[in-house]
Request: fold
Amino acid sequence: MSQLLLKPELVIGGEHRMSSDGSTFEVRNPATKELLANVPKGTSDDVKAAIDFAQSVYSNWSETPAPQRAEILYRVGEIIRKEQNELAEILTLEEGKAFPEALAEIVEGYDTVMYIAADGRRMWSYVSPSEQKDKACMVIRRPLGIVGVITPWNFPFSIPLWKIPPALIAGNTVVFKPASNTPLIAMKIVEIFERAGLPKGVLNFVTGPGSQVGEAMLNDKRLKMISFTGESITGHKIAEANAIFLRKQILELGGKNPIIVANDADLDVAVPAILYASYSNCGQKCTAGSRIIVEEKIHDKFVERFVKGADALAVGNGMNPGVQIGPLITEEARAKIEKYVDIGKKEGAKMLCGGSRYDDNERSKGHFFKPTVFVDAANDMRISQDEIFGPVACVIKARNVDEAIEIANDTRYGLSSAIYTRDLKNAFKSLSKIESGIGYVNQGTTGAEVHLPFGGVKDSGFGREAGEIAIENYTEKKAVFIDYSYERRPWYFGESG
Ligand code: NAD
Reply:
């Protein structure tokens, strides 16, 4: 893949162009720091123009029959499937994750598009009995209007595709702002929709900083919904801005996800799976298993095998065969991990592996960091409470599963959780008692499936995406009453509102 093939532009009303003031920002490969592209830095004027276009085509698009809208999505899915390797390569170059993981993300995007396309013929609602004779009652769905989509860099293909297809199939138009670390794969998404025949102006694309492009979107009341994924702190700001306009929102935010390892867990199964949950994508997953809460009796055996496994992970350029873990996204991200390694040591946790950069020729070129394990971590330490978002896992000892569940819940986050056990009682207890939007038994905290709802509680967010709820998110329900008696009704009938 030549970087010259990547030509990022704003897409506003179908026109590809640079930002209104001509400014740009750089995107670099995190594994090599090589320049991949100069990307337009959108302005508030660009955002306004994008929203103007989204508004001007809204009535045409929302009146297009949903099965016709679905045809475009099916074509999007076909293109993704056909070009999946090229797309995965761009994803690895730009985000750093190992190529097989990038490919899995592209396939997840394909799955979502195909799942949602079927809603073109399935956007059901319901009919209801009426209190009165000769009257029909039903609930119909209407689109919301213009939807703002703001996304993070760690799943820059699959997350926009959780949001854009359901917004479009429901008849909304979209303004899409990707994260500034990963605009190239986002641009490919927009190009694919264009090639699939999406009318101009239905999906508009503005790259640029959150403080500029994102805020200009939030400040425009013509956006009827913001569908956001990112850090909890940004989510709070977005919720405040949305409150001003009483705007609909989905907020998918951070996590500090617990994995309980019970005494009866099969370590042959648990250890490799927890290594994957903790370190894949270099720990840069909202669902990463970052607090591993281990029952006393099995603790030492688990730690010995887990540390050995973490030390043996293949870290390198994600394009190289056999690599399991790529680099961190930026130099700032690596500095943040180093800060937390220092904090963990000062707090009194014991670091058994990792904790530093690589100094060999290849890996010193990028933002690589060694998979790191802290043991003897107390749950109130910052390393156990803050979302570090890197290859750092904390092992916390618990007397029993009840105490492990208490520790699991002692956090501001509530996205994903898991337990390794062969005891059904422990499994169901953890599923019902742990405060999280997603729960696993004998699987790590990662591995969403697109037909099931995804999202968190507490500071991990608000609302769910994917699954059957996707259409709920992007439509309003309207209660409809049809009186076919053609008779004069008495006064005060059914007066309740
Ligand atoms: P971020 O919050 O820094 O940025 C997310 C997006 O918001 C970017 O496009 C950014 O430019 C934009 N933004 C930033 N400030 C803004 C503002 N003031 N107004 C409007 N937009 C603004 O997050 P990130 O670093 O890109 O992503 C990592 C975070 O995302 C982690 O916390 C991770 O847990 C979370 N995440 C959550 C999920 C989930 O589904 N719950 C999935 C992936 C990532």
